[in-house]
Specification:
147 residues; mainly alpha
Length: 147
């Protein structure tokens, strides 16, 4: 498995795909549970759930684009912007959504989202600290290279 050193684009695409794929069953469960318990609000809840899913897709699409730009340009500004977006995502997924949702799949999605946010933040910090240069593994000066 390749080591991720500054691949913010790779991990943010993975984050987008996993959250969107897990969001589909979460949205369906939300709609079905509301329609089952309160049929009078079924249509309005369905519309709100679909709009929320689309807003979530837009949010993670923005993160994916910022992650791509940060990696491609090795830009400190994009890295800082990506860290900010991911910090907001971590707060929402880890502290707001996670403890209050009774749905197990939703809890799993929030936990995975919080974890992936931390991974992206870590990679963005590495990218920021590199100052736009390549990130390479430091060699031990005591080991000799065989020719």
């Amino acid at each position: 498995m390749p080591r991720l050193s500054y691949q913010t684009a790779t991990i943010s695409v993975f984050q987008f795909i996993t959250i969107m794929l897990l969001g589909i069953p979460n949205t369906i469960i939300n709609i079905v549970s509301t329609c089952h318990s309160d049929s009078s609000n079924c249509v309005s809840n369905m519309i709100v759930s679909l709009v929320f899913y689309l807003l979530t897709a837009g949010w993670f699409a923005i993160i994916m684009l910022i992650g791509h730009m940060a990696q491609r340009k090795r830009s400190r500004q994009f890295a800082v912007l990506l860290m900010g977006f991911e910090a907001i995502t971590f707060i929402v997924a880890g502290y707001i959504d996670f403890p209050h949702d009774p749905n197990v799949l939703s809890k799993l999605t929030s936990a995975l989202d919080a974890f992936l946010s931390l991974v992206v933040i870590y990679l963005a910090i590495r990218l920021f600290l590199s100052g736009g240069r390549r990130i390479v593994k430091k060699r031990n000066p005591l080991t000799r290279r065989s020719a």
